Amino acid sequence: MAGQTRTQTDLGVRTVALMITEECINCDVCEPECPNEAISKGSEYFIIDSKKCTECVGHFDEPQCVEVCPVDCIPLDPNVQETKEELMAKFENLTSANA
After folding, report:
1. pLDDT tens digits for 45-99?
2. Which CATH number fits the domain that encloses residue 22?
3. Distance of CA 91 to the CA centre of its chain
4. Which of 1, 17, 74, 61 is closest to 35 using CA atoms?
């Protein structure tokens, strides 16, 4: 995954989630690219809802927001960590809820 790292925990290999930083220029490029509608306009810049973000697992090989961001303001969020399995389960839950 572009820009992603893995950390080792007692529960196995975990993916570090994404966040949007204050370097965001509010260009609105990332929001429509998110298949889970996890990105929205915040009070100062766009934000990612970690309850909806699957890092595009189940949809794409790479997080689409990271791919399209012109200022590279979507780094890893060390405060939110999930395994690929957890992200896939979240994807399945989100898509079944929208069916």
Report:
1. 999 999 999 999 999 999 999 999 999 999 988 888 888 899 999 999 999 977 6
2. 3.30.70.20
3. 12
4. 61
Give this prediction's pTM. Answer: 0.80
H/E segment holding residue 67: helix 64-68
Split into its structural domains, the chain has a count of 1
Range of the domain at 59: 6-97
Q: List Cβ neighbours of 50 (8 Å cut-off, separation of 6 or more).
A: 17, 38, 77, 80
Q: Is residue 1 part of a domain?
A: no
Rounded Cα distance, 85 and 75, in Å: 21
Running DSSP on this structure, what letter comes out for residue 62? S
